[in-house]
Design a protein that fits this description.
Blueprint lengths: L3 H8 L5 E6 L3 E7 L3 E8 L5 E5 L2 H4 L5 H12 L4 H21 L2 H14 L1 H14 L3 H11 L13 H23 L3 H18 L9 H20 L3 H13 L14 H22 L4 H14 L2 H9 L7 H12 L3 H14 L8 H13 L3 H15 L2 H13 L3 H17 L10 H9 L2 H8 L5 H11 L4 H14 L6 H21 L2 H14 L4 H9 L3
Helix pairs in contact: 1-3, 5-6, 6-7, 6-8, 7-8, 8-9, 8-10, 9-10, 11-12, 12-13, 13-14, 14-15, 15-16, 16-17, 17-18, 18-19, 19-20, 20-21, 21-22, 22-23, 23-24, 24-25, 25-26, 25-27
Length: about 550
Amino acid sequence: MAGSRSFERGLEYLDAVSGLEVGDGSVTAVVHGTDVYEVELALGGDDGLSGWCDCPYGQEGNFCKHCVAVGLTVLRRAKTIPHQRAAARARTSGLEEWLSALSRDELLALVREQVAEDRELRRRLELRAAAARSDLGTVRERIMVLIDPRPFARYGYVEYADAAGYGRQVAEAAAALRALTTGGQAAQAVGLAEEAIRVLGKAYGDIDDSDGVVGQVAAAVAEAHLEACRVARPDPTRLAEWLAGTVLDDSNDVTDLDPLNYADVLGPSGLTRMRQLATEAFRRGPSGWAARYLMERLVKAEGDVDTLVALHAQDLDPSGATHLLIAEELESAGRSGEALAWAERGLRDCATETYIDGRLVDYVCVRYAQTGRPADAVAVRRDRFRVERSLAAYRQLRSAARAADCWEAERAAALATLEEDARSEQGGRYGGPVLIDALLDDGDLDAAWREAAGRADDRQWERLADLSREMSPAEALGVYLRLVERSKEPTGDRAYEHLARLLLGARECHRALGTEDPFTAYLAGLRTELKRRRKLMSILDRYGL
């Protein structure tokens, strides 16, 4: 996550970590560097690990050296982590008990103390206080200040490093809107949310939101609008016109408003009005994305499958993705025969395309298998293989042909196609010839050795050596030593790790041949030759080389 440079520098800060606290899903600590930096590591989630640091490099969204130092400190103290986590839970429980025991006056004194020291907390509470006393003028003023990007736009736009700070302010605005709704001011919250969404939509084009932080909090503002509408029940026609206008506004790409989420608020009259507006917009510009999206969503809500299919059919993607979408809509409506027919049409329409949506091919082959047509599934996979001539297409053909008990014949024809491709000028378009990859994938090592001479690339040679070193150690050893010579020049952690793996393979071959002494001498010579590369030497030491 950090990259080699930050990782190496992080090693130098292991003794600078203090105040390590481990919770159920996060780790916090302080790292003493040029300044004192606060670090938080989040454990779990989609990525497994993420880090935040308030150093300049960390504020740009990088997993910095301070994050590395904290992460490695956690690993060093792995045995004590369960105890620290239990202690953290105990501290939280103790805090809850202490707060619960305080009197009203004591709690007020504590809050006043915190408000005096924490400006952000004071702003949040001021906003909530204004909402609670229905001071709508103050609430509106504060919300507009919170969603104003100009204080963050030092050069006319909000840079990546400032997007998170701006996002926190927008999140405060969303919280204030929800507070208005729960405080009996839902109608006012509707109007303020619509104004906030308009401002966010215009500002978003000038924000570097690479991490999607602003997009997420803008979605929270949209959710606050929906909640307010469900409570306030605004005029359905006016709401329909606002929704349609917002969805159709090309300049507003920050909030993905789905009109169907408002169906219960719009009611029949609102949905009818929105359908009228969508139809008019679609007639004016049928190729416009927003008009098409709005029209498709409304037609889908009405359950008019034929009209929905006709809409999709007006703009068929050359990859077959739209054919698949139509097939899935028909399948959901219980019209399986028509669904398969559309999917088959997609295969025909896209037959000559090098790229076709793999989900469409899978859809057809699965339906063929379900209806007892394995030979037809093989035919589909065969046609795609002949166009793509990739290892993935070869594997899919193999799977289908085995299910149909005809792989032997299909394999011979497929290998002949790949052999022809290998001899052509395009034979190396995927690196080394796909023929060699296919033979390796089949485990046909004898044929792979024959085809590799003069054709295989280094990746394929290494794979062939890895698979052959037990049965053919002498041949594999020759490959490893040749690749080692080619790998001595590149530098960097990745290159050194690769060189070490090649040497491990060569050592295994020497052991199988009973010739370990020559390898020891060879390795000593190599270390002498490359001794100035201290990082390489440390990696070789780690592998026992």
